[in-house]
Amino acid sequence: MMQNVHLAPETDEDDLYSGYNDYNPTYDTEELENDTAFQQAVRTSHGRRPPITAKIPSTAVTRPVATGYGSKTSLASSMGRPMTGAIQDGVTRPMTAVRGSWFYQSSFESPEEKIRQLEKKVNELVEESCIANSCGDLKLALEKAKDAGRKERILVRQREQVTTPENINLDLTYSVLLNLASQYSANEMYAEALTTFQVIVKNKMFSNAGRLKVNMGNIYLKQRNYSKAIKFYRMALDQIPSVHKEMRIKIMQNIGVTFIKTGQYSDAINSFEHIMSMAPNLKAGFNLILSYFAVGDRDKMKKAFQKLIAVPLEIDEDDKYISPSDDPHTNLVIEAIKNDRLRQMERERCVEVVKASQYVELANDLEINKAITYLRQKDFNQAVETLKMFEKKDSRVKSAAATNLSFLYYLENEFAQASSYADLAVNSDRYNPSALTNKGNTVFANGDYEKAAEFYKEALRNDSSCTEALYNIGLTYKRLNRLDEALDCFLKLHTILRNSAQVLYQIANVYELMEDPHQAIEWLMQLISVVPTDSRALSKLGELYDSEGDKSQAFQYYYESYRYFPSNIEVIEWLGAYYIDTQFCEKAIQYFERASLIQPTQVKWQLMVASCFRRSGNYQKALDTYKDIHRKFPENVECLRFLVRLCTDIGLKEVQEYATKLKRLEKMKEIREQRIKSGRDGSEGPRSRREGSASSDSGQNCSASSKGERLSAKLRALPGTNEPYESSSNKEIDASYVDPLGPQIERPKTAAKKRIDEDDFADEELGDDLLPE
To answer: Whereabouts are the TPR repeats (predicted)?
Structure first.
């Protein structure tokens, strides 16, 4: 049978359509009757197949076993098939499986299915080639393109054998060839790219293939073969219909650039003049000016420049000098031109023309908008200078400019200047709600809340929709402890701004101050539905549930808060204390280790890690941790105290060394305290001692209310008498550390996320918009 199979000859990869006319008689069904090998196979393997019986006969006896000691002989099976591994016609057949399952499965696969699989593979290779090119791997892209070309040729041959030529997928062939040519060009293999493009262009079956002559012109341009580049550009231009105006303009632009490179400026001028008359653009206008400069025609240069500046930029005027990206070159160019002489002349003439017209009010608005543009560019000095020009203008413009100046100075915490310009704005226009709001802000910053409330009320009387004044008056009532009135303000604001996170937080905070935790929790739940990743709001929910005794819910929200912001010391401390309280000291370790990373100079977090190891029974790890702490903090008494006890229990020789150090440190501490006490007794009289005692009590009260000391004071251990390695008296523990027991801590009230913190709104949201009323 093999005598009728003809192998395809090796062909050059670049000859894309070689081998199309090769004939493979394997698939010729008309000559099967004369094929002796096929007829023999039918008679032996199919025609004489034995009938199927219920009992499978054993073949162990009938098949001889070949050994390495004797010659191998083959016996025909009952079906006439030579035995696997036997010698037939002097050729040894390789060993195979008992059943030729793959052979039979592949034999029954239809040709159409093979074609579909091969077509899918070709498409995948083309896609992989394009992806590799976009990633910058040009070599891999070319290899994939070549592989796609080889498989596509095989696909065409197989399709011709099973179907008519009309059913060949020309789109796939076109895409394979175009991708191959593009990859050749990208790899600077210009000869191969041109050959492949020629194959596409000369094939009449490909519609619109003439457009690819533009690609060929580009290649000739890269090779500096300018005459051929122009020739192919013009051939492409002839084959593109006039409806494709944009493409024709781009080709004309390429022709003009090529003429410039050849020094044919007159022809280049004709091309660019045509473009500027049909579809003017910046590049063509600029090249036209250069061409006129090359021929020395100044008058036409001026006309070309007028055409150039008449081309619309298609960007907003305010954003023209704002960098759209982080490209340093672009930023340098914008920085150079945003205040050059041309830009200054442009601004001056624009404003002068408007001022000389009947639209004088428009000129004032333009100046204010110019100041706002400076603010967008973060050029605050220029914005202030521009707004100060309106101090001597009429009352309406003066009020608008003074309002914005007051706002700017307020943001910079220059409250005296902010108050001065707020007064100017109010005096110029008493009915300007923005000016009244800013004046209230400056009074609020000075602590005069009653007077600030009056300004906010007046702003609301002038404009009931001024949400800034309504929000700020709510904050003012809260500072005055008029919680019912504050709640009314925020509830009214909530009806206007339904999904404002700031308003939702303030309502929850007021309910918390009114000692209504259930309502506070309900409003905080609405808050996290608006900002679900706000770690401060989540920690506040955990704090409220903790105060209500619901530890499981508190843990859920504290853990969510930690997940979104794992650097909040208060949340980390609560979670660590929670695990200690629930007897899961091993889980508490990771939280205290993170706390020690955040505050590496605070020894208490590292002592808590060691304490967790000790409580979980891992005394060796605890000992190593205490030793590491001692190396970092050699004067920490508490660490030495635990080292002495652990070494004593384990029986280490180092116990004497640590005991000596501990005794020396305690002696030094005692001497230091005696000196301080004797110094106070010798320098203060009875009256001063009484005052000192009073001030000391006052200072203790203040410090007890502070956040840090309340947390440390509650993190103390209260172990039972049977627990080892605990100090016998809490008075002996060093002030820098108290061994933690659990989360039963009176925790400080944490605000929500910084952007919804009450004090932040007093500084930020109290300000009004930059746009004048």
So the answer is: 210-243, 249-282, 433-466, 467-500, 501-534, 535-568, 569-602
Q: Which two tokens stand for residue 566?
A: 């794992």
Backbone angles phi, psi at 76, to 5 degrees: -70, 140
Distance of CA 599 to the CA centre of its chain: 29
**Residue 646 pLDDT grade (very low, low, confident, very high; cuts 50, 70, 90):** confident
Q: Which of 748, 751, 750, 769 is nearest to 502 (CA)?
A: 751
Closest by alpha carbon to 207, among 180, 250, 241? 241
**Exposure pattern of 493-532 as b/e (b: 16+ CB <10 Å)?**
bbeeeeebbbbbbbbbbbbbeeeebeebbebbebbbeebe
Q: What is the pLDDT of residues 133-189, one digit of tens each?
A: 999 899 999 999 999 889 888 888 888 787 766 667 788 888 899 999 999 999 989
Please, which residues have CB within 8 angstroms of residue 698's CB and are 6 or more apart in sequence?
Answer: none
pLDDT tens digit sequence for 749-758: 222 333 323 3
Q: Which residue has the higher pLDDT, 370 or 212?
A: 212
- Other Cβ atoms less than 10 A from the Cβ of 110: the count is 9
E strands present in 410-492 = none
Query: What confidence tens digit (pLDDT) does each residue in 373-403 have?
Result: 777 777 778 777 777 766 666 666 777 788 8
Residue 388 has φ and ψ, to the nearest 5°, of -70, -15
Distances (CA, A) of 128 to 147, 148, 152, 184, 596: 11, 10, 15, 15, 49
| Residue among 384, 449, 389 at smallest CA distance from 410 | 384
Nearest-angstrom CA–CA distance, 535 and 560? 7
Q: How far apart are CA 280 and CA 273, in angstroms?
A: 9
Residue 713: other Cβ atoms inside 10 A: 13
Helix (H, G, I), strand (E, B) or coil at 207: coil
Distance from C-alpha of 696 to C-alpha of 694, rounded to nearest angstrom: 5
CA atoms within 13 A on the CB side of 1: 9
Sign of CA dihedral 330, 331, 334, 340: negative
Residues in CB range of 123: below 8 A, 6 or more apart: 172
- How do residues 494-523 score in pLDDT, each as one tens digit? 999 988 999 999 999 999 999 999 999 999
- Whether pLDDT at 83 is above 60: no
Running DSSP on this structure, what letter comes out for residue 316? -
Mean pLDDT score, 227-241: 88
DSSP H helices, 582-684, are 585-598, 603-615, 619-632, 637-650, 655-683
C-beta of residue 615 within 8 angstroms of C-beta of residue 580:
yes
Token duo for residue 371: 């100041």
Please, what sign has the CA dihedral across residues 88, 94, 97, 101? negative
Q: How distant is the alpha carbon of residue 205 from its chain centre?
A: 47
Contact criterion met (CB below 8 Å) for 418 and 438: yes
